[in-house]
């Protein structure tokens, strides 16, 4: 086990990764969006809307965490950090518009936004390196979700084309920059012993996973309650959606678990072909 842990530093120091990011400054029409925009399904709509409600504040937190550690990084990574920031700013802007459309369609997101704001404030009270590690863990979530959204378009069914385009555009750029925060973390922790590096990201991912899934579950149930779906029926339908069909959590579990492998790096899974094939 000790030898395997020592592989963590060697593998992460020389990852297989692409060079260069593309900033696609897209704007998406959101006027007149239907309340249950995802195939008329309130459960699917609640899950994706709960995700979107967390994005603007979360992505601003990611930007701050990476910026705090960009001094002295290699020139190629410095350029990627600049493009990562530009991509995340665009994502925040478009999901703010998406969230406003959800409010216009009748959902109340204020309580969800308040919970996200409180969690971000708590995170930003932690040491900067812990904030960066949390960012890396959450970027792993967004990357494996993005892979699923592009590899399995059935997640979106026959939803409005413009809305699907928004989520696919976001997914493309999440895959493209999936290693930027991680490579920044590798640089920031380069002087730490390999076992401590591995332990840090393993412990943080455990905590992040619990908080992320619990909060998105609570948020989705709150949105379902606004549609009059409550109690065990709401919990059962949401669990069936996440773990049954289409089963985003079931499908992403193996990829999520790779995080704990010594020597993990995001580009050990090269899914750039999904970027090329995205609609």
From TrEMBL:
GO terms for molecular function: hydrolase activity. Pfam families: Metal_hydrol. Residues 1-20 are annotated as: Disordered. It comes from the Bacteria. Keywords: Hydrolase. This is Metal-dependent hydrolase.
